[in-house]
Amino acid sequence: MGISSKDSGPGGIRSALGPFGLWIAAALVLAVMPTIFSSPVSVTIMNQMGISIVFALSYNMLLGQGGMLSFGHAVYFGLGGFLSVHVMNYVEYDGWPIPLPILPFIGGLFGLVFAIIIGSFSTRRAGTVFAMISLGVGELIAACSIIFVVFFGGEEGVSGDRTMGPPVFGTEFLKEIEVYYLTAVIVFVAAALMYLFSLTPAGRMANAVRDNPERAEFVGYSQRQVRFISFCASGFFAGIAGGLFAINYEILTEENLNLVTSGWVLLMAYIGGIGFFIGPIIGAILLTLLQTVLSNHTELWLLYVGLLFVLTVMFVPSGLTGLIMMHEPALRTGRLPNLARPYLVAGIPLLVALAGGVAVLEMLHHFNNAPVGDTVAHVFGMAVDTHNPANWAVAIAVTVFGAYATVRATPQVREAWSEANDFSGKAEDR
Amino acid sequence: MELVIFSLLNGLVTGLLLFMLSSGLTLIFSMMGVLNFAHASFYMLGAYFAYTISGYMGFWGGLIFAPLLVGVVGALIQRYGLRYVHRWGHVAELVFTFGLAFLIEEVVQFFWGKATKDYHEPELLDFPLFTLFGQSFPAYKAFMILISIGIFIALLAMLTRTRVGLIIQAAITHPNTVANLGHNVPLVFMGVFGVGSALAGLAGVIAGPALGTFPGMAFVLGSIVFVVIVVGGLGSLAGAFVASLLIGWLQTFAISLDYSMTDLLNLLGISFDDEHVLRDLWTLSLPQVAPILPYLLLILILIFRPTGLMGKRET
Q1: Tens of pLDDT along B166-219?
Q2: Which 66-125 residues of chain A touch chain B by CB within 8 A?
Q3: Residue A6 maps to a domain
Q4: What ipTM did this prediction achieve?
Q5: Are strands A382-385 and A376-379 parallel, antiparallel or unpaired?
Q6: Domain around A216
Q7: Which tens digits make up the pLDDT trace of B79-90?
Q8: Number of folded domains in chain A?
Q9: Domains assigned to chain B
């Protein structure tokens, strides 16, 4: 349905590294990460990333692989999470013998149940109807969460304690690092399963229905059934992500299943690149970083995220991964180094312009919102007096100069780009 | 009686306000096939622009200039944003308008801050119009009704009685033929988008003092407007009108009629103890479910009558 992607499988990278190379590398990275970033804060951030990765990947089963734009995907995430917390409480108070690692699976099953119910009518159509139904269901469940206090806990949500279950291999998940390894294993398994799903006939047909439902029907597949299967699988994995969230934070509130969370997962998948399996992973990592790190440094971080998102939709519809994968032909022909110089010539002024623009925005924000008498804004670690016109002049001059230099350098980049990707004539006598 | 009359009037105010938003949105949808998620954001921009302008020129200045400004912003976004994104296909357009809604909320917070703005109705309209059964009806609400009905009539007259209206109607169904006849169809699209945004802005200007001017105001109304145009039938102006009033009354009556499941069950002679797991179900009351009624309606309509109440084509 009009998503401009070439292929949804990461076939290119896979062939370059052998069939399992990338997965083995990913497992190694997951195992080694906490020894490199060992502070409690970074472990928490990595846990958050893991949850986001599963959630974003499950979302992309709909949008990227199935062509279904959903505005209510947080429903399955949240419901899975809420049930997991309730099960956690049953373990604590009623002595249910359920070890913690099973919990996300239970959350996933709950997400699956709701996906079956809701998918039975919402997957009849793709496109705008599907988007509208998903929005309606999302609003409905979010509003219900305030009404049904027994299950959703009203405004304060439902909380639990993950350490009360039977120990698994001697651990009771008291430490954050133990939770990290549990999360990492589940993230790895879930991602692998989702990748395998994209290779099954059901996953392949989802691509076919996305691109041309009519032809898929002529081949003998019901487009509705194909969408339904994708939808259920997606709900299941979103529920798993919800269960992981429950384990990590031990609390769920209305916030976890409302429209804001649904929108956030769309941002992660789209900025990362919906046309590639790895896209949502990159998006989830990047946006979690912005959410946790950038938000410590500036109050305007959501504005920057919004700008990034709109610019991505407008100019790079294949997302960050698409931007990277664009260079694959040049890499294969060994012409990638030719691009380095023009990229530097245009990239450095671009960074300068961005820095200048950010400085102007930060100063303006400080000027408008700071209490009277406080005239010093902190921009990139520098103390800047916002009531001194000279500082404004500098920031604006840097922005304009950077933008001008970038514009001057673009023809050079364009020329180098078309040269590197020119496979006619000249490329033959290489 | 008193309850019914005031609920009718309040529902009318809400419904007509919704119509000002949904009329533009449904026109835009029928032309471009894009559901504009940012439509309610234009409504919010209208309120904020009017707030700032009213600081210099008073409420009436804001009433005139803020919608115009919003219209220009909308037209520019259509010209340089939406038209550009069109090449990436339908889903990208939807995602673009969603991103726009996100961005506009952040931009509004950037310029005006997070707090609710002190934006008031003019003193001229700050009096009770009439008092009925000891309850008074503010003149400003009557003014809101008047403006909305005026807009509805003007819009209808413009679409059916003028040359521009005929071209717009033709461009909805047969854009290529209209272009072949020598009309600038992209310009028509841009104009409709601008006028639709301006209408949303106008709704924001008059709703700002009544419903509050704060960064979440677009979010509060945004989804409801979608419900209205889907229920009314996408592309149908009359349908949007009926659905707006329907939703307006549905919400006000549900809030004012305090009946609950317990009452119903008592009537049937059934009672449950308070400790039951499903106790929330037995104690469910109408005001409680008021916020979910529109969405329930939306889902039911989409399942059983995808064309909406008065729409001609399926979504």
Answers
A1: 888 888 888 889 889 988 888 988 999 999 999 999 999 988 888 888 888 888
A2: 67, 69, 71, 121, 125
A3: no
A4: 0.86
A5: antiparallel
A6: 11-305
A7: 998 888 888 888
A8: 2
A9: 2-259+290-304 (1.10.3470)
